[in-house]
């Protein structure tokens, strides 16, 4: 895995296809996670999908990271509180809540709400990590939040006053809150900590957190319907967005820098909405377009 990152990093700088791949493939793969989660909602229970996803990803990574885990275990123990919080929010909560939310909301809505994450990161950074925000950034967050409310209320503002929300949208929004917290925590990890090894640790801890909820789901009688479609879906979420997208994103950060690659995250809802229309037959509504426009306007201002 590490050699793949090094090879991508050392590729000729003039190779435009490699650059485009590093920028476009990770958000495309992550968008696919939403599409798959929505497509198997009737066949694979959400917590089963979350648990099996990280089990597959952990087993794939372990042969490549076990030496790093042995070498850096003292460092992991030193930062155990941050690692546990990151594992709960970024692995266990985020993906489980996404799959739960996709039971009752569309992939398009979930993907558009994903665009609100950068603003949540700034908000929580200001509240809990002493990040100073300008008046323009506060204005941007306010505009983006109006966009989120437009999506959650389905464009019917009377739903806000009557507190009539789609449950799936609210669950997805909680997932976005989890990811914002995860991002702020992971940024405070020491630079000398191997990121792929850290990813393995987070997966193992995330599995332990999801395990009791997964067992409860099984005990309640929610069992998967295994067929070619669900097996391929499970293979996709376990390999492509969980491992391959992360490695490509890491290589992109090393080759192009975090600022440029970070902007590519905004391609997730663009790819996702197009995929949801093409593959799931979902429709794009005016309230979604206006909500996404407000979110992006807020991000630009911020």
UniProtKB/TrEMBL annotation:
Domain EamA residue range list: 21-152, 168-301
Keyword terms, alphabetized: Membrane, Transmembrane, Transmembrane helix
Topology of this chain in the membrane: Multi-pass membrane protein
Any one annotated GO CC term: membrane
Coiled-coil annotated spans: none
Regions crossing the membrane: 81-102, 108-129, 138-155, 167-185, 197-216, 228-249, 261-279, 285-301
UniProt keyword Membrane present: yes
Keyword Nucleotide-binding: no
Record's subcellular location: Membrane
Entry's family note: Belongs to the EamA transporter family.
PANTHER family associated with the record: EAMA DOMAIN-CONTAINING PROTEIN, INNER MEMBRANE TRANSPORTER
Protein name per UniProt: EamA domain-containing protein
Source organism per UniProt: Vibrio furnissii
Lineage: Bacteria, Pseudomonadati, Pseudomonadota, Gammaproteobacteria, Vibrionales
